[in-house]
């Protein structure tokens, strides 16, 4: 487990991910409400050039970002309100994977088969308020995962 002391540490991890992420990648972020998923996404998006603070996509479900706002297309996805995997089909995530980075919060709302090649980050809230991070690193990420 990797310890993230505060929101700034979570955002710094996102910035490190931005240095190795590319279109076609999926970063799945799992953890309870308030665990820091959006902080990681905000750090990544800021490092890709987003000047304003990225909103949580909870209500929009999919928040797209495109050049020149960021270096390459990114979809920030929050699946918390998805009740049925068929609803996700309407979001067009499969099509977007070809040319965008997908940052997916609450990936467990869809079958694991959707995320076979995703870098899967799981965040926990520790008793002292820090965040604990564990990662499942697929083959496509092994030479890029910044914390190995």
TrEMBL record:
Keyword presence, Repeat: no
User: Annotated Gene Ontology MF terms?
Assistant: ATP binding; metal ion binding
Q: Which UniProt keywords apply?
A: ATP-binding, Cytoplasm, Magnesium, Metal-binding, Nucleotide-binding, tRNA processing
Q: Which domain of life is it from?
A: Bacteria
* InterPro entries reported in the protein's UniProt record: P-loop_NTPase (IPR027417), T6A_TsaE (IPR003442)
Q: Name one GO biological process term.
A: tRNA threonylcarbamoyladenosine modification
Q: Does the keyword Transmembrane apply?
A: no
Give any Pfam family that matches. TsaE
Q: Where in the cell is it found?
A: Cytoplasm
Any one GO CC term of this protein is: cytoplasm
Report the sequence similarity comment from the record.
Belongs to the TsaE family.
Q: What is this protein called?
A: tRNA threonylcarbamoyladenosine biosynthesis protein TsaE
Q: Which organism is it from?
A: Sphingomonas tagetis
């Amino acid at each position: 487990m990797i310890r993230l002391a505060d929101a700034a540490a979570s955002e710094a991890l996102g910035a490190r991910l931005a240095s190795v992420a590319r279109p076609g990648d999926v970063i799945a972020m799992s953890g309870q409400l308030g665990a820091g998923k959006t902080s990681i996404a905000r750090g990544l998006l800021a490092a890709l050039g987003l000047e304003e603070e990225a909103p949580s996509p909870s209500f929009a479900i999919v928040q797209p970002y495109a050049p020149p706002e960021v270096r390459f297309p990114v979809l920030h996805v929050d699946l918390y309100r998805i009740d049925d995997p068929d609803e996700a089909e309407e979001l067009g995530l499969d099509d977007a994977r070809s040319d965008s980075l997908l940052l997916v919060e609450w990936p467990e709302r869809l079958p694991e088969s959707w995320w076979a090649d995703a870098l899967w980050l799981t965040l926990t809230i520790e008793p002292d308020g820090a965040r604990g991070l564990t990662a499942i690193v697929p083959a496509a990420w092994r030479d890029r995962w910044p914390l190995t």
